[in-house]
Inverse folding.
């Protein structure tokens, strides 16, 4: 997602909704751990997104 798209989404959804979406995106559905932004895999269980 580009920076411009991000800003468009913030305007549309509001900052709280945007941050909630970001949090969901970087949270592992398997163990609830944090997903590494660079590797795209979970720190906790290593699950690839
Ligand atoms: Zn995990």
């Amino acid at each position: 997602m580009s920076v411009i798209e991000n800003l468009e989404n913030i305007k549309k959804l509001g900052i709280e909704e945007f941050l909630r979406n970001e949090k969901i995106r970087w949270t592992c559905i398997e163990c609830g751990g944090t997903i590494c932004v660079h590797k795209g895999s979970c720190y906790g269980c290593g699950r690839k997104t």
